[in-house]
Each structure stands twice: as C-alpha cells, then as structure tokens.
Amino acid sequence: MELKERRQDQAVVLELSGRLDSNTADGFEEKLLGMIRNGEKYIVLDFSSLEYISSAGLRVLLKAARELKQTDGKMHLCSLKDYIQEVFDLSGFVSFLPIYAVVEDCIDAF
Amino acid sequence: MSGIVNEFTLANDISELSKLAEEVERFGEEARLPAAGVFKLNLALDELVTNAIKYGGMSRDGCIWIKLAREGDALVVELKDSGRPFNPLEAEAPDTECGMHQRNVGGLGIHLTRKCMDEMHYERRGGENYLRMRRLLGRECSTT
C-alpha cells in the first residue's frame, strides 16, 4: 500500500492506494496514530485509489477514531469504491466513521 | 464456463496474503467474475488465512491448501489448514450495532467471511480444519 500526504485547509489528507490488509496494516497504524499523537485533529482519508480493505484495516481505523475522540479530533473518509463501502456497512463502522463523496465534502464537514 | 479450478497452497507467513490475492485475481479472470465478486472472494479467504496464520498455532512449515472452483452458477471454495481445531461457524458474531467505545474487533473478520458466503460447512478431519464454502454467482454480499 502507498500513502500520500498533503495539507488542505486545516486538514491533513492521506491518500491511500493499493491494499490495506494484515500485511500493510501495521505500517498504516504507525503513520496514522503517529499523526494523531503529534496533534493532528482533522484527518481526511481519501480512499479513491484504495483497492482492498480487510478487518485488519478496519481495526486500525477503530483505534485511530478512539484516539481522536480523546483529543476532540475528527476523521472523515471519502471516495470509497462500492464494494469497500459495503464492508463498512457490514461491520457497522458507518455509525462512527463519517463517509463523504469527495475530499472537499470531508473538509467542509469539519 | 464450468470446470474452472485453481488450487494452490500458502506458507505459514502473513506475507502470503499477496500470493492469495494474485491467485484469487487469476481465478477471477478465468471465471469472469466482476471486480466486486473478486474482492469478496479475496476478503472471505484473507480473513480465514490471517486467522489461521496468526492464531492457528501451525508448525513453521505448516501450510494452507485452497481450492477455488466454478461449478455452474456457484463458486465452491475449499480450505484446509493444520492449525488447532477452529470452527468459524461457532465463532461468536460481533455486535455491529454498538458504538465505537464498546466495539471489539475480535470476530469481525470471520463475520465478514460469513457475510460473503452463502453456505459454509466445517469439519475437523485427519488433524486438519476443513472448510467448504459456496457462493452463488450473481449475488453480492448481503447487507441485511
């Protein structure tokens, strides 16, 4: 999996591409939790190039969402492929991870 | 379109998920599965394989055998591993309705596998876990 990071307004946008599974989840966790611990409060995860996610990836998102709650931060997701959206529906993660169509919508919603 | 089969083994190493993805992709092309179908097949197997490698206690040289077949209007998936007895059909389903702080991600992977398959059958035989699963083509994961 590859990660591209950029700043847009008050948010940091992480663009994920490739596969987020047990093979790649540890590296992503280190990056994401590191950003939160360094004080990032508004995080956008752009999934437009993400091809695959398993429960290992969901686990990282849950950890990050919990940490952000403690710092009053927020994490918004966007541009999920239909079949990836379905994983979020099936797992019930949609109840605490807001999902939007595009990056701009994520930022407007902070 | 019947008679398409892909049979392979994975070593007891989490990096083998890459090989799993390649094999599922190859089978998907031959069986002309849509992208969503390939994804769900991969997800269902990924969760089982990850579980077996991380928690199955297989010996270092243990391996996981997988067979994918298209039989008429269905995909038939078989998986064998030499880990300790584990029946995924008896695994407790996670509460997917509760809030973030009550969430326990244990069991989520197997829950996803079950949602991606129409039928699952488990047997412990010859010191191995054996799973046979079916998914009807033309049906995507149910969200209900």
Task: Give your account of this protein's structure.
The complex is a heterodimer of chains A (110) and B (144). Chain A is of the alpha/beta class. Chain A is globular, with a radius of gyration of 12 Å. Helices cover 41% and strands 33% of the residues of chain A. Chain A has a five-stranded mixed β-sheet. Chain B has 144 residues and is of the alpha+beta class. Chain B has three helices and five strands, in the order βααββαββ. Chain B has a five-stranded antiparallel β-sheet, covered by helices on one side. In chain B, a hairpin with a 2-residue loop joins strand 2 and strand 3. In chain B, helix 1 (17-30) packs antiparallel against helix 2 and helix 2 runs antiparallel to helix 3. Chain B is globular, with a radius of gyration of 15 Å. The model of chain B has no long low-confidence stretch (mean pLDDT 91). Classes of the chains: A alpha/beta (110), B alpha+beta (144). Chains A and B meet through helix 2 and helix 3 of A and helix 1, helix 2 and helix 3 of B.
Spans of at least 5 consecutive residues with low confidence of chain A: none
Kindly identify the CATH topology of chain B. Answer: Heat Shock Protein 90
User: What structural category arises from helix and sheet content of chain B?
Assistant: alpha+beta
Unreliably modeled segments of chain B: none
Main pleated sheet of chain A: 5 strands, mixed
Biggest interface goes to: A-B, 25 and 32 residues
Number of extended strands of chain A: 5
- Roughly how much helix do the residues of chain A carry, as a percent range? 40-55%
Which strand order spans the largest sheet of chain B, edge to edge or round the barrel?
1-2-3-5-4
